[in-house]
Each structure stands twice: as structure tokens, then as C-alpha cells.
Design goal:
The protein is of the alpha+beta class. Helix content is 51%, strand content 18%. The chain has 17 helices and 20 strands. The chain is rod-shaped and about 160 Å long.
């Protein structure tokens, strides 16, 4: 099932799962100030709405005298629920500010136990008389603003066991709201039924608030580590929706003492900001599909509109509500158009958001129509639809974040693999460079520097074992003639062959290196001078025994001359030892080449020094 279709099904189920009707059926409608409920069974049919025509006296607080037991209701009438602003008197609409008395005669069944009346929100002060008895005063009714104390939240008021003819008189004063009068219908029924309905509504509200808070706080915490604009705006939008439900349903007053005026201003703030933040969020989610002017307009209008809660009195503030409805609807329509464009262009996540947004707009128009009394009054469904829209946004945003995280992980893994491969290549290259720095590239033998370092270790080993350390300086005789006659490639081949033949005679603990040109150095251990002489002669004979191939079909007999020196003096350095071996080498070459000369003994032996220690 496509995601957009699943979102639509989820929204439909969520809205259908909420009770859309008021506490009971609409029931009969009052005519001429009389509501006939004589055949109404409250136990089986539930509460009933006290709607229809009520007696009306504007500018008068008459109390129960407006409708006495023997008096018949008389004109004028007002439609309840309704505002005074809708009433025409002497050719002009009445002003919302003022006070008035409304009355209704009820014809009830003979026996009704524990009846109660449920009041909606009022933003005014009200006083209810039942059969001449003052039942409740919400706030303080007054003819002036200085006297009146508004009491906004709805409540349930017990009126007792009643039957037959019942006269209701409602006094209302309004000096703080641009609309005056009974804006919401009163509902009559048993107290248990009304309380059950109120409890159900509260549970739905708390569920919606809880869902929004969980989502909002999660994304708010996420914004601390990933301060992307869409995450911040989404967290703000979600938390503001939760605050609006808690504010408009007065649940927030259980935590914070706001008063009716503070609640009204907070209601206004959330009402103004929500469509603006939603529009800005859409601009962040689909930047290529939203004109740049729209986010700027939302910013400027939001800054301008928020002056109201700070500078205006509540009557003027509520009077600007229609303007805010128009502007909020305009920005919401721009957001919907942008989402529709994004969906048409196949942007990721645009289709489900478009479906949910269109449904939310439909629910919003339905709630506005209910407020304007175009359709019967029932529960507002916009908070439910908004919650489902937030959930859809959370899924889309979460999917984007998940894909971004997966991409980041893949890039991180690729980077790690590339870094590991690079480190391996660097290590191999470093090893190659070290090997190149320590070995001769032509023969693969040690160079001078590592050879000298390794010689110290060989010297220590020989000292511990009581052996002597010897050095052979080896030179290839008449090597220049090979280069001159056959070229440097032939000379290189001779040097490689020489190194291979030398390596064949070297023991595991002996050291062999190329000193330069056609000169080689071997550092070895021996028991005595005779052993050193034998080792050098064996090497010389091994070289002379086999010819060297210098070209195709051309082989030459080559020889080497060897100068040998033994480290018999504990105070002698390896540099001195090498110089002595080099002198013997040149002496041997001067004597005719292809021979071995060993340097005479100098100073105390190392073995003797070891024994003395």
C-alpha cells in the first residue's frame, strides 16, 4: 500500500475514533422561548442541547423576573447558541460589549433525577436561575468592565431533581470579548452522563497532547545535536500544537495560573504562530517548490501579529481574530500549494504530506463552519487531524534523517575503508622507502649506514661468545674493463651475480653489504685469524671458479681481491677496523690482485678483555 494511502487511512481512523457529537443528541429545538422535552428520556437518549429561540433582553440584567411561572415567553428572541452581534435592533447590529438576559421555558418529563447543565467556554460572566433559584454564577456579572469578572472555562452545574415546567434565566455580561452572548450551546442531562462525556473528551485531549509532546521533545532533543532548520521548526510546531490543545481546553490551568486574560492571550499566540511555522517548515522541506517571498512574509507577519498579545486589550485582540483566520488560511493555502507542487514533481515525502494536509484543511473548514453555526455544533476535530499531520511529518522527516544517516554511515564506512587502504599503502610505501634507504637497489644488500648500525650488534654478540669479529673489504678486479667493453648493463649484471655468490657463503648471523661501486663489505665472526683467512680464501675461490655471463653467449672469468681485518683490540672502532681492511685490500691489489691479505694484530684481544672482566 502506498505511503500516502496509508497516511489517509490512518487519519480517517483517527478522526473516526473520536466522538464527534456533543454529550447527547441535538434533540428538539426551542420555539418561541419554549423547549418541549416532555417525551425525552434522559436515561436512554442521553443529554440534550438547549438550542433554539430564547427570550432576549439586551442591556438589562433582569434576573428571574424575566420569566416568571405564570408568564408566557414574549419577543424579542435570540438564537442560542449565538452572539449579540448577530441580532439586529432598530436597523443595526448590536455591539458585542454589553450585558443581557436570556430565558427559556423547559417542558420536562415528570421524574428526572440528578439533572445538570454543561456550560461551554464563554469569555464572559454568567448567572443562571432555575425556577427563581440562583444555581450558579460564573465569574461576576456586571454592567461595567470594572465590575465584571470573566470566567472562561466550561463547567458542569447540578440543578437537581426536576420535572414538569422549568424556567431557565441566564444573565450574561461581556466586556472583554468582541462577541457577546451564549456562544456555545448548553446541554441538559444527568450529571453522570455529562461527566462521562467530559472525561472522554479530556482523555482524548491528554492522548493528543502526550503524542505531540513525545514527538516534539524527541525532535527538540535531536535539534541540540543536529540544529537543522527543518528539525527545529518541526519540534517548535509540534510543541506549539500540544500547547494550543492544553490552552484552548484549559488543561494548562492545572499547572499554571493564567487567568482568563492570560489564557486568551496564549490562545491568540498559538493561533497566529501555528500556520506561519507550518508554512516555514514546508519551505524548508521543499525549498525548490516554495517561493522565497513566502517565508519572508511569514516572518514579518508573525512579528507584526504578535504585537497584539502585548499591546492590545482582550476585546480588541479577539476582534482581530477574523483577520488572523484570513491570514493564517492564506499562508496555509500557500503551503498546501507548495506541497502539491512538490508532490507533482515527485519530491520525497510530498505525496503523504499533501494527503494529510488536504484532510486537515477539510477538517479545519468543517470546524469553522461549526463555529459559524452553518452545521450543528459538535466536537472540534482539528486537533486530531493536526496530530495525525504531525505524525505524517515525523515519519517523512524521520525517513529523511534515516536515509541521511544511512548515507552518512555508508560514506563513513567507505571513508574508513579508504583510510585503512591508504594507511596500508602508506605503511607499505614507508616499508619500501625504509628498505630502499637501507638496502642497495641493484643488489639488495645492506647499504653503509644500516650495515654500520648492525655491526655494533654483531660486535656485542661476538664479545659474549668469545669469538672475533672480522671485516672483509672485497673488490672486483678489473671491473672497469667490463663496463668499458660491454656497457653498464653488463657491469650491473656482474654486480648482481657477485652479490648472489657472496650471499651463498654468508651465515645467518654474518652481515653482507655493498660499500660502493664494485666494493663489498662482509662482517663475520671467527674463532681465530686462521679461520678468517680460510673464509676469505673460500669466498675468493668461489668467485673465480665460475664465469660471469656479461652478454648473450659471452662469459668472462672474473676475480676478487679481499682485504681482511680482525677486531682484536677492544678499544678499536669499526671505522678504524674498516680502514685497516681497506688498506689491506689496496695492498693486495697492488701485489697482483686475486688474493687475500689479512691485517696484522693490533692491541689486546676482545676475548682477553672479556675474560679479565
Amino acid at each position: 500500500m502506498p505511503f500516502s494511502l496509508r497516511a489517509l487511512v490512518l487519519m480517517a481512523l483517527a478522526i473516526a475514533g473520536c466522538r464527534t457529537s456533543p454529550p447527547g443528541s441535538e434533540g428538539p429545538v426551542a420555539r418561541g422561548g419554549v423547549l418541549d422535552l416532555s417525551h425525552w428520556d434522559f436515561e436512554t437518549q442521553g443529554p440534550v442541547s438547549l438550542r433554539g429561540e430564547w427570550m432576549f433582553r439586551y442591556g438589562e440584567l433582569l434576573g428571574p423576573s424575566l420569566l416568571s411561572p405564570d408568564q408566557e415567553p414574549v419577543l424579542p428572541m435570540i438564537s442560542v447558541p449565538g452572539a449579540w452581534n448577530d441580532v439586529v435592533s432598530r436597523g443595526a447590529h448590536l455591539q458585542g460589549e454589553g450585558f443581557a438576559t436570556q430565558a427559556l421555558r423547559l417542558l420536562l418529563p415528570s421524574h428526572n433525577h440528578d439533572l445538570a447543565i454543561a456550560f461551554g467556554e464563554a469569555y464572559a460572566a454568567e448567572r443562571l436561575w432555575v425556577n427563581g433559584r440562583l444555581v450558579v454564577e460564573r465569574g461576576r456579572v456586571g454592567a461595567t468592565r470594572a465590575v465584571e469578572v470573566a470566567d472562561v472555562p466550561g463547567r458542569i452545574v447540578t440543578i437537581g431533581d426536576l420535572g414538569g415546567t422549568v424556567n431557565l434565566v441566564l444573565e450574561t455580561s461581556n466586556h472583554f470579548h468582541f462577541k457577546g452572548g451564549p456562544l456555545h450551546a448548553l446541554h441538559l442531562g444527568s450529571r453522570a452522563q455529562l461527566e462521562q462525556h467530559a472525561e472522554t473528551d479530556a482523555r482524548i485531549d491528554f492522548f493528543l497532547i502526550g503524542c505531540l509532546l513525545v514527538i516534539g521533545l524527541f525532535y527538540a532533543a535531536l535539534s541540540l545535536t543536529r540544529p537543522d532548520r527543518e528539525i527545529v521548526l518541526f519540534a517548535l510546531l509540534t510543541l506549539l500544537l500540544a500547547l494550543r490543545i492544553a490552552t484552548t481546553k484549559w488543561h494548562i490551568t492545572a499547572l499554571v495560573s493564567l487567568g482568563s486574560e492570560g489564557q486568551l492571550r496564549l490562545d491568540y499566540i498559538t493561533f497566529v504562530l501555528l500556520p506561519l511555522i507550518f508554512c516555514a517548515l514546508v519551505a524548508e522541506l521543499f525549498p525548490a517548490d516554495v517561493p522565497r517571498v513566502i517565508p519572508r512574509m511569514t516572518l514579518w507577519y508573525g512579528a507584526f501579529a504578535l504585537i497584539g498579545p502585548l499591546a492590545l486589550d482582550t476585546q480588541t485582540l479577539t476582534g482581530a481574530r477574523n483577520l488572523n483566520i484570513v491570514m493564517g488560511s492564506t499562508f496555509a493555502a500557500a503551503a498546501v500549494f507548495s506541497v502539491a507542487r512538490a508532490a507533482f514533481l515527485g519530491r520525497q515525502g510530498a505525496s503523504p504530506l499533501l494527503v494529510c494536509t488536504v484532510v486537515v484543511l477539510g477538517v479545519g473548514f468543517r470546524d469553522v463552519a461549526m463555529t459559524l453555526r452553518i452545521i450543528p455544533e459538535s466536537r472540534e476535530l482539528l486537533p486530531v487531524a493536526n496530530t495525525v499531520l504531525v505524525f505524517a511529518h515525523a515519519v517523512v522527516l524521520g525517513k529523511r534523517l534515516s536515509e541521511g544517516l544511512s548515507l552518512s554511515q555508508r560514506l563513513s564506512s567507505s571513508l574508513l575503508e579508504a583510510n585503512t587502504l591508504l594507511e596500508q599503502r602508506i605503511a607499505a610505501r614507508t616499508e619500501d622507502l625504509e628498505r630502499m634507504a637501507m638496502t642497495d637497489p641493484l643488489t639488495g644488500l645492506w647499504n653503509r649506514r644500516p650495515l654500520m648500525k648492525l655491526a655494533e650488534g654483531e660486535r656485542a654478540r661476538a664479545t659474549r661468545s668469545g669469538e672475533l669479529v672480522g671485516v672483509m673489504m672485497i673488490d672486483c678486479d678489473d671491473f672497469k674493463l667490463v663496463n668499458d667493453a660491454y656497457g653498464h648493463d653488463a657491469g650491473d649484471q656482474v654486480l648482481r651475480t657477485l652479490s648472489q655468490r657472496f650471499a651463498a657463503l654468508v651465515r645467518s648471523h654474518d652481515l653482507l653489504g655493498r660499500w660502493g661501486g664494485e666494493e663489498f663489505v662482509m662482517i663475520f665472526s671467527t674463532v681465530d685469524r686462521a679461520g678468517a683467512q680460510i673464509a676469505a680464501e673460500r669466498l675468493r675461490e668461489h668467485v673465480a671458479a665460475l664465469p660471469f655471463e656479461v652478454a648473450a653467449g659471452v662469459a668472462l672469468k672474473l676475480t676478487v681481491t679481499v682485504g681482511v681485518a680482525l677486531l682484536e683490540d677492544a678499544r678499536e672502532s669499526f671505522e678504524d677496523l674498516l680502514r685497516r681492511a681497506d688498506r689491506e685490500l689496496y695492498a693486495a691489489k697492488s701485489a697482483g690482485k686475486n688474493r687475500v691479505r689479512i691485517a696484522p694484530r693490533e692491541g689486546p684481544s676482545i676475548a682477553g678483555s672479556a675474560k679479565e672482566e
